Amino acid sequence: MTARRSSQHSPVRRLDVKVLLLVSLSACAWQSEALKTGPDTYQVSANASPARGGETGAREMALRNANKKCASMGQQIEVLSIEISHAFPANGVATVNFKCK
Questions:
Q1: Distances (CA, A) of 64 to 3, 24, 25, 82
Q2: Where in the sequence is the domain holding 52, given as residue range(s)?
Q3: What distance in Å separates the CA atoms of residue 12 and residue 64, rounded to the nearest whole number?
Q4: Do 37 and 96 meet the contact criterion of CB atoms below 8 Å apart?
Q5: What's the structural domain count of the chain?
Q6: How far apart are CA 63 and CA 48, in angstroms?
Q7: Cβ contacts of 78 within 8 Å, gap of 6 or more
Q8: pLDDT in tens, 59-90
Q9: Is 61 domain-assigned?
Q10: Phi, psi dihedrals of residue 74, rounded to the nearest 5°
């Protein structure tokens, strides 16, 4: 007598996978390294899901990265502009243009 495995997954198992996928997607964030755009002028960007703060989280990450770049050169940051936008599905995106002086 051989045991048979059911080809159907249990409803609990499918729910666990969906919840894990949702949590992993909802907690995403990324940020770019400082990109030189001119003499002493740089740009950084950050993207944060609602779980990571959305627009506010993205702005904070981008400014922290910009400050880190200037500090690594022993200089202070001068923010030229901050652009805020949205990315799918509901992420906040911040782009900071800055100088190190």
A1: 58, 24, 23, 13
A2: 29-100
A3: 41
A4: no
A5: 1
A6: 13
A7: 98, 99, 100, 101
A8: 999 999 999 999 999 999 999 999 999 998 89
A9: yes
A10: 70, 30
Tokens representing 40 are 């002493």
C-alpha span between 13 and 17 (Å, rounded):
6
Residues 28/91, Cβ–Cβ less than 8 Å: yes
Q: Is the dihedral of CA 24, 29, 33, 35 positive or negative?
A: positive
Other CB atoms within 10 Å distance of the CB of residue 67: 17
Whether 77 and 57 have beta carbons less than 8 Å apart is answered as no
Q: Could you report the per-residue pLDDT of 9-42, keeping only the tens digit for each?
A: 555 566 565 554 454 455 688 999 999 999 989 9
**Does residue 5 form part of some domain?**
no
Q: Which amino acid is at 87?
A: A
Interatomic CA distance for residues 82 and 80, integer angstroms: 7
- Using the structure block, give the residue that is written with the tokens 């919840």: 19
